[in-house]
Structure formats: C-alpha cells, structure tokens
Amino acid sequence: METKRNTGMIATFGAGCFWGVEAAFRTINGVTSTAVGYMGGTREHPQYEEVCTGRTGHAEVVQVRYDPDIVTYNTLLDRFWSIHDPTQLNRQGPDTGTNYRSVIFYHDAAQEAAARAAKDRLSRTDRYHDKTIVTEIVPASVFWRAEEYHQQYFEKRGGGSCRSGEYRN
Asked: Which of 15, 42, 64, 111 could form a disulfide with 84 if both were Cys (CB 3.0 to 4.6 A apart)?
C-alpha cells in the first residue's frame, strides 16, 4: 500500500530577496514545495515592480509547504534565522526597502507561539552582539504568487546568490 505524504502544512517567511530564501528552504528534507510571492500589503494582485516601490506594503516572501512528519516548524524557523540578519530594519545586504523586511507570517496559534519563543531565545543570546531583532511576527494574509520568472530563480539560471551583485532588485 502506498503512503501519501502530508503536504498540508504551510509556513511563510520574508528574509530579504525571495530568490535566496526560497533556495535555502528547498534544500530541507520534508519541504514538499515552495513558492515565492508577496504578503502583508494592501494591493490586490501586486506585481513585482509595484512591490519594489514600497508603496504596496508587501514583503517578498517564500511560502513553504512541508510534511510535519518529516520536518518540524521549529526546524524551518532555525533555517529562517540562519539565512539573514534579523537586526536589519527593512533591508538585507544591498537590498533596501520594506519589501525586504524580516517577517514571519504565522498561519495558526502554534506557529505564532513557536516564532515568538524562538525570537525571544535568540534575543537572549549574544549572537547579534546586543543588536535588537526587528523581525515582525504577524498573522498571515493573502499570499500573492510572484511572476513565474521569479519561481525557483536560481535553479532556472544554474545557481547564483542574492549577495553576489549579479542582480539589482
């Protein structure tokens, strides 16, 4: 008898350029799919160029579908914290603007509690040398899938890095 994977759990994170964030989550065993898009803004069906102006209020995010029998939400949170600097307000590296903010969009009370506990634990360490973690933890809203050319961007282009200077978002 074939066992069907549990692909129903969703997590959504914003940690700067969504290309690199998506690539980092795709490597985790138990992640069944990813999609890049926009969340947290006021405009319906936002387009990339609009989001980059900062006037829509959206963050660039990756929506992660995962099998909780294989990977925990806390493991996803660990990856989130490890791939960006959560002390930078509205920026990551060379990318600046509210669309690049550090944000966790929670989908239920358990995710909210886990995210807040993780942020609190990190705040009490010396990992960020007494800098304040500015990561927002807010309820998930409508996820607007980004244009197809953004999906799995690095895989389509044979690698790359958001920090390499090869692009300007």
From this structure: 15
pLDDT interval class at 152 (50, 70, 90): confident
The H or E element spanning position 144 is strand 144-145
Helix, strand, coil shares, percent, the chain, to 5: 30, 25, 45
Question: Is residue 29 situated within a structural domain?
Answer: yes
Q: Closest by alpha carbon to 85, among 162, 5, 8, 1?
A: 162
Burial of 154 (0-12, 13-18, 19+ CB in 10 A): middle
Q: Where residue 51 sits, what CATH number does that domain have?
A: 3.30.1060.10
8: exposed, middle or buried (Cβ count in 10 Å: 0-12, 13-18, 19+)? exposed
Does 41 fall in a domain?
yes
57 occurs within a structural domain: yes
Is 162 part of any domain? no
**What's the number of domains the chain is made of?**
1
Range of the domain at 22: 9-156
Q: Name the least confident of 7-11, 39-43, 78-82, 110-114.
A: 7-11
Active centre residues (catalytic):
17
